[in-house]
Structure formats: structure tokens, C-alpha cells
Amino acid sequence: MKSHRLLAAVFLSGFSIMANASQLARFASDRASVPLPESFQVTVTGDDVVATFGADGDHTLEISLLADLSKPGGPHDLAFNFVKAQGAKKGAKVLSDGERAAFSEAGEQEKRGRRVYQAMHWQIGVGNCVFTMTLTAPLPMSKELDEFLGAPLNAIVNKVSCAAP
Question: Mean pLDDT, to the nearest integer, of 128-152?
């Protein structure tokens, strides 16, 4: 499916910084945060961040702090190594900058009314924190999604953070 390859290719294209103004969403643990474009409508519930965008607000980005593997005096790269191993098990291309590991995989298509929505999933390991991220958007790809699939997406993946306890 062309949309799967496009979403994966954009993510895998490399690391860049967010070009647009951003807002910082903090997870409930207050140890983790993620920069999101200023135009996104953001809701934080516990360790889940849900952001919507698009002309109809029908593009959804869900980011969850899935696990904090930190232990006093323990290693500081458990989630990093976990995500690398998960990606390898799934045969996915894992990107790593030495501090974070991430991979993406195409998700399911879902019909809602007359529209078809495509999902894309990521796992991101930063130090000892494992994040999952799902982007769901209507097909065909909108202008808003096309704009998001460059620097803003890469900035989210590359700047989601989790401070050591």
C-alpha cells in the first residue's frame, strides 16, 4: 500500500528539528515530555497524550509512556535496548542515535462512515522509557498530513524525552 510506504519512508528519512512553533506536552509522571506543533489540540490524561489536527480535526496522534524501566542504580538504557530488540524481532529498520531507538510499522485501515483511515505505529525507546505512538489519518492523504510528515514528525520522534529519576 502506497500510504504505508510513504509514512514509513518519511519517518526513516532521518533526524531533523521542528520547523514550526511548538508546545510542550508533559506526561503525568512529569518526567516525560514531547514537543507538538502549536496548531495541534492536545489532551493529556495520565501518561497518554492525544493530539488532533487537520481542517476537520480528524487526524489523531496518540503518544503513550508505556513503561519506565528505571531502577535506582540500574542501567540507563533499558528501553533503548528493548526497542532495538523489538524492532529486530519484527524485522523492522531500527533507527538509533545512541540515546534513542525507534522503529515504525504500518497499521490497520479502518472504515468510519464513508471514509477510510490509515494508522501508522511507532515504538520509541529513550533511556529507560518506552513510548508508543500511533498516527491515524483519513485517506487520501490531506495537505495537513503531508505537512506533518516532515520536520514536525521527525521532531516528535527525536525530541520526546524522559528524565532519569
Answer: 95
Angstrom distance (rounded) from CA 44 to CA 10: 26
SS (H, E, C) 53-72: ECCCCCEEEEEEEEEECCCC
Residue with cell 497518554: 48
**Alpha-carbon span 101 to 5, nearest angstrom:** 20
Task: Please state, in angstroms and rounded to a whole number, the distance separating the CA atoms of residues 69 and 55.
Answer: 38
**Tens of pLDDT along 16-58?**
333 446 899 999 877 899 999 999 999 999 999 999 999 999 9
| CB distance 49 to 137 below 8 Å | no
C-alpha 71/C-alpha 81 separation (Å) is: 15
> Can you say whether the dihedral through the CA atoms of 41, 4, 106, 13 is positive or negative?
negative
- Give this prediction's pTM: 0.85
Q: In what order do the strands lie in the sheet with 161-162?
A: 22-26, 32-37, 161-162
Q: Domain 2-162 - what CATH class?
A: alpha beta
Nearest to 39 by CA among 27, 53, 49: 53
Residue among 58, 52, 41 nearest 141 (CA): 58
Q: What is the pLDDT of residue 165?
A: 66
Report d(CA 31, CA 27) in Å as an integer: 7
